Amino acid sequence: MNSLSALPISVRLYPGETVSSYWARLCAANAIGQKDLWLALRHKDRLLPIGVTPRSALAYVEALGGLPEGALARDSGGLTCAHGGATRQVECPSCRMIPAAVMLCGRCAAGDQIMVSRMHGPICVRHRKWHVGDREIDVVLRPKHLAAQRLLNGSLALRGVPYRSPEIDAAAELLQLGVSERDGGADDLDDEIRLFPQHVSLAALLTDVRLANVLMPHSFGGHALAMLFDRLVTAHAKGRRTAERVLERLRIQGRELWIGTMAVPVQGGCMLTDSARHILPRVKVIRAHALHHRVELAER
After folding, report:
1. Reduced to 3 states, what is the DSSP secondary structure of residue 109?
2. 32 versus 154: which is more confidently predicted?
3. Residues 200-214 pLDDT 10s
């Protein structure tokens, strides 16, 4: 490895940049085809895969780019695994929490096309832009959207909940089930932008450790779960303090689940609100999605 010299032109490694993205930019900067450079590496190490899989050769890519040892493993998602670059990330418990790669904000990347794999959302907080493909939508006058993105970058990232995740989907579905009528004039993107703060803030409630500590050790009937999620959505609509009070008072006493000041049987039927009836058919799926970040895959 020490005999491998760095290429004449080095490129900057962006925080969270994927190995494939860095490899492609390094080859382009030095006017070398990716296949040609990979063949040269395979002449040095015959154990490398035949196909171009830079993640299988992190140490070589670091040496070619003049990077310190471990830089790519640290910036592209932390721990590496024995699967290398030829196997899907979901098969490894260590790699499972790395979200799908997304395009970095063009302004932050100074016009370069940088793919990053990290907890990410649609908004660049630095430039206050919503990125959709090649489009940029200004969110300067939408402080709730910026706060939601900071929540994604902060506590939700620490919980392992990226924007495109089952937890966010569960929050979106609960909000949709709780609305009897929807406006027909807006398209999907308009709805996504408008409801983005609500989706993220409700997902923060659904992934709260206090809720997980109640849901995970116990087996609940559908009616109890429907009422629980209904009360959470209702409290969420009233504000953060109301939602916090519901979570603080959430407990199981005997055969009853106490949701604030209301008690429902853990198993069996009970009176349901109209919105809880809408939630009931999907309640098991929503519970599984809300706990997705808490479940680790078994080692293969």
Report:
1. coil
2. 32
3. 999 999 999 999 888
Structural contact between residues 125 and 153, judged by C-beta atoms closer than 8 angstroms: yes
Residue 133: pLDDT band with limits 50, 70, 90: low
The 10 Å CB-count burial string (b at 16+, else e) for 113-151 is ebbbbbbbbbbbbeebbbbeeeebeebeebeebbebbeb
Domain extents in the chain: 1-98+109-118, 141-300
β-pairing, 123-124 vs 115-116, is unpaired
Structure tokens at 300: 């293969």
User: 210 Cβ partners below 8 Å, 6+ apart?
Assistant: 247, 248, 250
Q: 217-220 long-range CB contacts below 8 Å, 24 or more apart? A: 218/252, 218/266, 219/266, 219/267, 220/257, 220/266, 220/267, 220/287
How far apart are the C-alpha atoms of 89 and 96, rounded to whole Å?
6
3-class state of residue 34 by DSSP: helix
Among all chains, which residue has been given the structure tokens 């603080």?
A: 248
Using a pLDDT cut of 70, give the percent of the chain over it. Answer: 82
Angle, vertex CA 69, rays to CA 63 and CA 71, nearest 5: 100
Residue 285 predicted with pLDDT over 90: yes
**65-69, 142-146, 178-182, 234-238: least confident range:** 178-182
Task: Kindly give the residue spans of alpha helices, DSSP state H, lying in 84-221.
Answer: 143-151, 157-159, 166-177, 188-206, 209-215
Q: What is d(CA 139, CA 123) in angstroms, rounded to the nearest whole number?
A: 8
How far apart, in whole angstroms, are the C-alpha atoms of residue 10 and residue 214?
51
Instruction: For the beta carbon of residue 257, count every other beta carbon within 10 angstroms.
Output: 24
- Tokens representing residue 143 in the block: 């402080």
